[in-house]
């Protein structure tokens, strides 16, 4: 007993070492052999106590070993059995006895093991064939599970595995042979569904049957094979590998498409053609993933898509417009993506298909398709179509940049067309309408741009290019647009909010203008007319525009414009003091207001000495005396062309009106108190007003369809045959005694004629003079800071500082002038280097 106990303890130690290795166990371990032989001796008892619970297999096996370790001695067990009234006998055979006895025992047990394994395998094989052949099994699942376990416990797991694999492999080959009837038929679009249905029926049964077999051999799969040192695939992976090897023998490094791949692609193309496809498409695609052929099919599918849509692109791009092609491409990508999303579980499949189709349909077509009626697409302002085009292009590398380039070309082309063809009166309105259209496209279709800064800069560069095609004309017309907005006669302004919006729109165009000094010159002239003639819609609106211009260009730009308002405020103060002066001098109060201006702030006007009627002359003399008294004998110079007056006119008995007219118009009207008929020559001689001004004001007094007809021509029949200006110069004028108007006070509007050439020349001369001063200041400022500079460097730095377009030759002339005035000098050794003269 002592020797047996020692050997038992040795076996216990050996078994405890094997229990620590959960993944692999040597087939020849002592503990394992002992346990298996003990189970063989009591095989009949085990069959009555079989447990098919797969989750307790390991615990049961380990519990059996623990029973061997904690076994009490024989006498104690016998006493305990007698006490309980149950007789049990446990025999422990010593395998380390004499060699003869051990050898005989081993040979006997080996024969018993072999017979038992064959017996169990016969039962297992019969039931496996029954499952594969759709017959009823002869044994229960529990019985089959126990027999698998019994074979594994006898160290025959590898042999059992090989036999099972052979059966399944033969079954797979049998299924392959059943497919040969449809394999021989050439695959066409019409019969691809029959082939897929046949393949689907084969796969429908194979995983179900193999999974049932795997459940029977679960002990072999989870425990029996883990004790082998040779790594063996799990049963499910093995069955899927058999299916792959049998049905897809062509799959290798040198990949070739299988008939199933082609059939699946044909079925998908039929679905894209809006045909109903009755085939297990999703099931077969899942099968490819299960048997690890999904990557090969994905590669085949992408190759076919690439070839198909390359052909489609080649055929459709030359004959379709940009909008038509983008609509077609979006429809194809959307529908194919939906189909892939419905039938593919692999998350990368959808991304790969979309990427392939985007490359074939969009990326490779962008350089050509954007040239097909792209301008028509943008001109339509259909944000849905434009958004479709942009969203498709921006998903391709470089696609957004290409759209931006074509968008810039469209804006420049359309803008230059507007600048070239539109008349002066409509140019600014057309530019503003075009800008609103571009903003509508930007906010509605291009808002998803990855780089919105570049897109906005593209718009700015394009507008700046065509707006400055003719800088002087653009500056003049934009300034006149501001004049129209701020004029009291503007009928398009309904409230302050609409005026603010119109001003903001005009400021956008002003922002693109390079010749801002030209704009300032024209704006200053328009502002002076509004202030002098009191035709400004609102002082607050005027100051609001100045604030916006100051924000855009700085305080230096609006310095003179703000000075004009300061003069107007000072004139209001002088008007109050003048009233007090008249009261102090005991002179009658008159309705008179003089505007005293600083010549530096205001435009330069030619002052004409005219014959003032006696009704006005005394008042002007009184104000002149008052001003000398206030400012130390300073004299004033009257600009009658900027003055206005209110004339009370009696056209006939009972018809008296107040006419708000310019000074020239008032002087002309007062002449009709002396004589009923006047000609242009007589008016010029009597008033000393220039003939050009007389003609312009007579045209305004004659009026028209929408203007009051204060005067009329005496010889209507002869004047009708001549041009208006010619008839005015040669005709005679009388008061229109039949004048009718419901208003008591009538404002006589000036004739809106084209800016005279003389005024344009004056503006150009004024701008050039200011530019010369700015160039001189820039050169001196740079040289004072740098002390010494080469000619080329000085030219470049001056160009960077100046905010108006200027030629290098003009800068060179100003440099020569500064050298003559000793601001800078040339280097004695190198004439191309300038030095600052302190």
From TrEMBL:
<dbReference type="InterPro" id="IPR016159">
    <property type="entry name" value="Cullin_repeat-like_dom_sf"/>
</dbReference>
<dbReference type="GO" id="GO:0031461">
    <property type="term" value="C:cullin-RING ubiquitin ligase complex"/>
</dbReference>
<dbReference type="InterPro" id="IPR036317">
    <property type="entry name" value="Cullin_homology_sf"/>
</dbReference>
<protein>
    <recommendedName>
        <fullName>Cullin family profile domain-containing protein</fullName>
    </recommendedName>
</protein>
<dbReference type="InterPro" id="IPR036390">
    <property type="entry name" value="WH_DNA-bd_sf"/>
</dbReference>
<dbReference type="InterPro" id="IPR036388">
    <property type="entry name" value="WH-like_DNA-bd_sf"/>
</dbReference>
<dbReference type="InterPro" id="IPR016158">
    <property type="entry name" value="Cullin_homology"/>
</dbReference>
<dbReference type="InterPro" id="IPR019559">
    <property type="entry name" value="Cullin_neddylation_domain"/>
</dbReference>
<feature type="compositionally biased region" description="Polar residues">
    <location>
        <begin position="1"/>
        <end position="11"/>
    </location>
</feature>
<dbReference type="InterPro" id="IPR001373">
    <property type="entry name" value="Cullin_N"/>
</dbReference>
<dbReference type="InterPro" id="IPR059120">
    <property type="entry name" value="Cullin-like_AB"/>
</dbReference>
<dbReference type="Pfam" id="PF00888">
    <property type="entry name" value="Cullin"/>
</dbReference>
<keyword id="KW-0832">Ubl conjugation</keyword>
<dbReference type="Pfam" id="PF26557">
    <property type="entry name" value="Cullin_AB"/>
</dbReference>
<feature type="region of interest" description="Disordered">
    <location>
        <begin position="1"/>
        <end position="114"/>
    </location>
</feature>
<dbReference type="InterPro" id="IPR045093">
    <property type="entry name" value="Cullin"/>
</dbReference>
<dbReference type="GO" id="GO:0006511">
    <property type="term" value="P:ubiquitin-dependent protein catabolic process"/>
</dbReference>
<feature type="domain" description="Cullin family profile">
    <location>
        <begin position="473"/>
        <end position="702"/>
    </location>
</feature>
<comment type="similarity">
    <text>Belongs to the cullin family.</text>
</comment>
<dbReference type="Pfam" id="PF10557">
    <property type="entry name" value="Cullin_Nedd8"/>
</dbReference>
<dbReference type="GO" id="GO:0031625">
    <property type="term" value="F:ubiquitin protein ligase binding"/>
</dbReference>
<keyword id="KW-0833">Ubl conjugation pathway</keyword>
<dbReference type="InterPro" id="IPR016157">
    <property type="entry name" value="Cullin_CS"/>
</dbReference>
<comment type="pathway">
    <text>Protein modification; protein ubiquitination.</text>
</comment>
<keyword id="KW-1017">Isopeptide bond</keyword>
<feature type="compositionally biased region" description="Polar residues">
    <location>
        <begin position="96"/>
        <end position="113"/>
    </location>
</feature>
């Amino acid at each position: 007993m002592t020797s047996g106990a020692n050997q038992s303890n040795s076996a216990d130690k050996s078994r405890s070492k094997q229990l620590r290795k959960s993944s692999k166990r040597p087939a020849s371990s002592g503990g394992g052999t002992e346990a298996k032989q003990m189970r063989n001796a009591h095989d009949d008892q085990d069959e009555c106590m079989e447990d098919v619970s797969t989750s307790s297999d390991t615990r049961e096996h380990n519990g059996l070993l623990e029973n061997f370790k904690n076994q009490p001695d024989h006498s104690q067990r016998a006493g305990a059995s007698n006490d309980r009234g149950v007789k049990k006998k446990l025999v422990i055979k010593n395998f380390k006895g004499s060699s003869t006895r051990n050898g005989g025992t081993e040979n006997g047990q080996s024969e018993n093991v072999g017979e038992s394994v064959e017996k169990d395998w016969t039962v297992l094989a019969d039931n496996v064939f029954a499952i594969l052949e759709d017959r009823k099994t002869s044994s229960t699942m529990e019985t089959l599970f126990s027999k698998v376990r019994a074979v594994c416990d006898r160290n025959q797991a590898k042999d059992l595995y090989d036999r099972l694999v052979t059966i399944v492999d033969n079954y797979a080959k049998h299924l392959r042979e059943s497919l040969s009837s449809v394999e021989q038929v050439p695959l066409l679009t019409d019969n691809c569904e029959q082939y897929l249905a046949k393949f689907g029926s084969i796969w429908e049964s194979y995983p179900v049957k193999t999974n049932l077999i795997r459940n029977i051999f679960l002990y072999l799969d989870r425990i029996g094979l883990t004790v082998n040192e040779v790594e063996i695939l799990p049963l499910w992976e093995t069955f899927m590998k058999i299916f792959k090897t049998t049905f897809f023998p062509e799959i290798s490094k040198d990949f070739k498409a299988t008939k199933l791949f082609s059939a699946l692609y044909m079925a998908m193309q039929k679905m894209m053609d809006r045909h109903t496809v009755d085939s297990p498409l999703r099931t077969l695609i899942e099968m490819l993933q299960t048997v690890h052929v999904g990557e090969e099919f994905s590669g085949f599918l992408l190759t076919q898509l690439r070839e198909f849509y390359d052909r489609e692109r080649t055929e459709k791009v030359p004959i379709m417009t940009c909008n038509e092609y983008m609509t077609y491409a979006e429809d194809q990508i959307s529908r194919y993506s939906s189909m892939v999303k419905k039938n593919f579980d692999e998350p990368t499949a959808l991304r790969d298909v979309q990427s392939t189709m985007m490359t074939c349909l969009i990326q490779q077509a962008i350089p050509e398709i954007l040239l097909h009626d792209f301008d028509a697409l943008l001109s339509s302002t259909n944000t849905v179509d434009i958004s479709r085009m942009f969203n498709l292009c921006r998903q391709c590398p470089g696609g957004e940049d290409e759209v931006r380039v074509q968008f810039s070309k469209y804006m420049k082309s359309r803008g230059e067309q507007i600048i070239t063809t539109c008349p002066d009166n409509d140019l600014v309105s057309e530019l503003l309408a075009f800008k609103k259209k571009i903003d509508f496209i930007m906010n509605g279709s291009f808002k998803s741009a990855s780089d919105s800064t570049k897109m906005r800069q593209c718009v700015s560069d394009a507008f700046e290019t065509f707006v400055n095609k003719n800088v002087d004309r653009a500056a003049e017309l934009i300034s006149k647009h501001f004049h129209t907005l701020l004029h009291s006669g503007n009928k398009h302004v309904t409230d302050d909010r609409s005026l603010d919006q119109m001003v903001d729109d005009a400021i956008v165009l002003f922002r693109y203008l390079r010749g801002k000094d030209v704009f300032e010159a024209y704006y200053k002239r328009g502002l002076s007319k509004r202030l002098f003639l009191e035709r400004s819609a609102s002082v607050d609106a005027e100051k609001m525009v100045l604030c916006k211009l100051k924000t855009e260009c700085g305080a230096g730009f609006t310095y003179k414009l703000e000075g004009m308002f300061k003069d107007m405020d000072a004139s209001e103060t002088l008007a109050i003091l003048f009233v007090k002066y008249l009261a102090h001098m005991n002179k009658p109060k008159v309705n008179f207001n003089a505007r005293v201006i600083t010549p530096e702030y205001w435009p330069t006007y030619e002052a004409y000495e005219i014959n003032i009627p006696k009704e006005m002359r005394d008042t002007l003399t009184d104000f002149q005396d008052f001003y000398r008294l206030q400012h130390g004998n300073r004299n004033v110079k009257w600009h009658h062309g900027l003055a206005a007056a209110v004339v009370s006119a009696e056209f006939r008995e009972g018809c008296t009106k107040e006419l708000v007219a310019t000074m020239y118009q008032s002087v002309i009207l007062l002449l009709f108190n002396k004589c009923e008929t006047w000609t242009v020559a007589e008016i010029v001689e009597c008033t000393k007003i220039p003939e050009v001004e007389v003609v312009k004001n007579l045209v305004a007094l004659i009026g028209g369809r929408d203007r009051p007809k204060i005067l009329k021509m005496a010889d209507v029949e002869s004047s009708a045959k001549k041009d208006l200006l010619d008839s005015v110069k040669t005709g005679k004028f009388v008061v229109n005694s039949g004048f009718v108007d419901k208003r008591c006070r009538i404002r006589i509007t000036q004739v809106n004629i084209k800016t005279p050439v003389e005024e344009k020349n004056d503006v150009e001369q004024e701008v050039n003079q200011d530019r010369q001063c700015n160039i001189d200041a820039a050169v001196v400022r740079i040289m004072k800071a740098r002390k010494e500079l080469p000619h080329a460097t000085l030219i470049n730095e001056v160009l960077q500082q100046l905010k108006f377009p200027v030629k290098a030759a003009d800068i060179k002339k100003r440099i020569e002038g500064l050298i003559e005035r000793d601001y800078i000098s040339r280097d004695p050794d190198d004439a191309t280097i300038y030095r600052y003269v302190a």
